[in-house]
Amino acid sequence: MKFAALLASPAAALVAHKSALPAAPVRAQASSMEMKYRVAVVGGGPSGACAAEICAQEPNIETYIIERKFDNAKPCGGAIPLCMVDEFDLPADIIDRKVRKMKMISPSNREVDIGKTLKEDEYIGMCRREVMDGYLRDRAVEYGAIPINALVTKIDTPADSDSQGRYTIHYSRNDLGRKAPEESLDVDVIIGADGANSRVAKAIDAGEYNFAIAFQERIKIDDEKMAFYDELAEMYVGDDVSPDFYGWVFPKYDHVGVGTGTVINRPGIKMYQDAIRERAGDKIAGGKIIKVEAHPIPEHYRPRRVKNRAMLVGDAAGYVTKCSGEGIYFAAKSGRMAAEAVVKLMKGGTVLPTEEGITAEYIKPYDGLYGPTYTVLDILQKVFYTNNAAREAFVDMCQSEYVQDVTFQSYLYKRLVTPNPVEDIKLLFGTVGSLLRGRAIATPDKPFSNPVESLKRL
Ligand SMILES: Cc1cc2nc3c(=O)[nH]c(=O)nc-3n(C[C@H](O)[C@H](O)[C@H](O)COP(=O)(O)OP(=O)(O)OC[C@H]3O[C@@H](n4cnc5c(N)ncnc54)[C@H](O)[C@@H]3O)c2cc1C
């Protein structure tokens, strides 16, 4: 049964929930129907839904997915790479728009069009998160995950030495109105997919990460203006729109998302948002702001991502790339990889996984696959987003078809591109040239005073 259908019918929701209530404190033993091990996925975004659907397909594990808001519209640009469509079997109608052109716009408003290297069937998918997340969650439920519409408030963890002890998840149901009593569920394994403000991370003492604050306004512009953004996304760089990130205009379903982000001067976010609106100028003029949203974006992994039988995935773990701020694919992928590791380690629901096993089967393979991507994008951000001269150089370099091709291939398909030594040497010289040209034309960054946050990244 779908989440939405469960919501629409309180009685059905109650039935579903009752089946979710813990019976007597069961000691899980595999193969007996009433005594299965329980895996709870906290959070129903892309990471949680993609984790839950894998666990739910193992009939000897009882899988729960706990989400506070079934119709959550996560503040997000909603851009996903092409490979995600096939890999996660997304239906065509999840993609509202196919972006085939991007404009990079420098601090001095020099525009470079990128996308020339894309093949006809290649695109960046733009989706509405409320639609995509809803679809993925419903699919997990159809596979058998038991949905609980509730806010997780606290998690009691077993002692480190207790290899069999259960976790108790306390939550307040959101489908029963304000007076819903607090309830709890005992489980054996937890997958923390509850985003940047993760309760699971707190419960396992996973430590903090630096985060950017990202701000976005959804703006409805007239049809003529919308036609301009039909297949086009814009990225603006400059210290006016962000001292350490970029501002964007992304085409959404029937409007544009206009936003920016920063780590090192978060109190300035409104000023940067005003600047991105100003830079987009006539292209969005007269538009009606239909939604304003802001949310943290993690800057790096948490110090700890697994403890005992609880693990973090997606934003809760800190899997967003620097430079591009991309996190949806990495959330879905990490959720899937963590769940596959859990299912494998639980051997048909007969044994509990261990921290060592989860580290070996999920954390290490994930880092092996994507560690280099995070490192490269971290370096690029440090080199090219730090001052206007470097930003001018960055946009200049984007003219190179080689740079465009490498960028799109690695973004769209999430695979390392085989280096071309001749082109790499040309690129090296090109970069030096671009940096020198950038220095010559750039206006110096305006100073700002934020002694605490400004030390956080650069
Ligand atoms: C403004 C902005 C623009 C962005 N643009 C892009 C983009 O264009 N492309 C891209 O790839 N990435 C983008 N990102 C990053 C992307 O949104 C995240 O990386 C992605 O959503 C992470 O997915 P997740 O499932 O890990 O977490 P989330 O999507 O945050 O999902 C967490 C879920 O857990 C639920 N939850 C949280 N706490 C609790 C609790 N205590 N109890 C129960 N449920 C709970 C929430 O309701 C939510 O549904 C953007 C981020 C921001 C802020």
TrEMBL record:
Coiled-coil ranges from the UniProt annotation: none
Gene3D superfamilies: FAD/NAD(P)-binding domain
Keyword line: NADP, Oxidoreductase
Zinc-finger found in the keyword field: no
Alphabetized SUPFAM superfamilies for the sequence: FAD/NAD(P)-binding domain (SSF51905)
InterPro entries from the UniProt entry: BchP_ChlP_pln/prok (IPR010253), FAD/NAD-bd_sf (IPR036188), Geranylgeranyl_Rdtase_fam (IPR011777), Geranylgeranyl_Rdtase_pln/cyn (IPR011774), Geranylgeranyl_reductase (IPR050407)
Protein name, per record: Geranylgeranyl diphosphate reductase
Species of origin: Aureococcus anophagefferens
Gene: Ggh
